[in-house]
Design goal:
Blueprint lengths: L1 H37 L2 E8 L8 E6 L5 E6 L11 E7 L2 E6 L8 H27 L1
Antiparallel strand pairs: 1-2, 1-4, 2-3, 4-5
Helix pairs in contact: 1-2
């Protein structure tokens, strides 16, 4: 039985360290992406006639300060009818970087991976301490 503990103990400790060390960057990246997504404001934009060189629909919209912005949206085809209303999500610090899809899922995947790795690390840390008392 002692031979099994001598093999299991380093493996459990390795997985514990792996979970904490690799899980930390994933959690930080997920947190940063989520923080950026929650700063986005929503407004309504209107499709305008695109310039000749446009490859996507062009829309005008106003930010909270009342400034008018004009942006091309790659998700919306050029053939979209004029005066179609779009929901525009933008960062107040960088209003020229607007998008039409909602930001609700930003950072969810890295956060989930980070939480799973942290949970594996925590379980392995508890198991490592338990193995000290058993062996």
């Amino acid at each position: 039985m002692s031979d099994a503990f001598s093999v299991i103990s380093p493996v459990v400790e390795l997985f514990g360290w792996f979970g904490f060390i690799v899980g930390t960057p994933f959690l930080l990246a997920g947190w940063a992406l989520r923080r950026r997504a929650t700063r986005l404001e929503s407004t309504v934009g209107v499709v305008i006639p695109p310039p000749d060189w446009a490859r996507a629909a062009t829309a005008r919209w106003m930010d909270v300060d009342g400034q008018l912005h004009e942006t091309q949206f790659g998700d919306v085809p050029v053939t979209t009818p004029l005066e179609t209303e779009l929901t525009v999500h933008y960062d107040p610090d960088r209003p020229h970087r607007a998008r039409v899809h909602p930001p609700h899922d930003d950072g969810r995947a890295p956060r989930t991976v980070g939480v799973v790795l942290y949970a594996v690390g925590a379980v392995c840390a508890v198991a490592s301490v338990g193995l000290l008392f058993v062996s």
